[in-house]
Each structure stands twice: as C-alpha cells, then as structure tokens.
Amino acid sequence: MYKNDGVTRRYSESFKLKILSELSTGKYSKRQLGLIYGIQSSTINEWIKKYDRKDLMNTRVMVETKDEISRLKALQKEVKQLKDLLIKKYLEKMVQDSYLEVAAENLGYKDVEELKKT
Questions:
Q1: 3-state helix, strand and coil shares in percent for the chain, rounded to the nearest 5
Q2: For residues 100 and 111, what is the distance between their CA atoms, to the nearest angstrom?
Q3: Residues 25 and 49 in one domain
Q4: Which domain holds residue 44?
C-alpha cells in the first residue's frame, strides 16, 4: 500500500487564508490545526511562506550570559584578524608572482618555472 494512495489534495485560497488567520489568533498551534484539518504542519509552513506571513513562523530565542557574549566578541575579533592576515599574505603572494613573471620576461625565460629551475 502506498503512503498517500495517489490522492492529491488541493486547497482553496480561502481555506489557506482561514488556516493562517486561525493560526494568527494564537488559539491553535500548527500541530493542532494540522490534526483538526488533516494537514501537515509543513504544508502550513509553505502557506506561511507563500503569503509572506513571517510573523507566524517559529522564532528562536537565544539566551546568553555576559561571559558567552564577551567570548563570542573576542572570537569574532580573532576571526577578523585572521581574515585580514590571510588577505595580506594572499596579496603578498600575488605581488611576488607578478615580480617573478616580469623578471622571467626581462631575463628571456619562457615562463616562471624555467626561471625557478635555474
């Protein structure tokens, strides 16, 4: 037996909006509405996205201590410093490669690899 037995359900726009309005009242949760009307909560999430009702999406609240916040800021600062250092090293390498190309050309070598060999 197949999971949905080939049944395709189509819901009217008014039905979708009715579900969203019931959800916005706060009387029912997505799960409860799904059980009442026989719809998946993922379907309700699709309707929320379709009708741009971000106020109905689940929100995540993070609780952090001052120590965690200061540690996070320190780590972000360190990441920024490392990125800056990486960019600096990359630019230095590009400049060095350019110098080698110019030197190889001025000295009459075919390419930089030939210059490095000698």
A1: 70, 0, 30
A2: 9
A3: yes
A4: 13-56
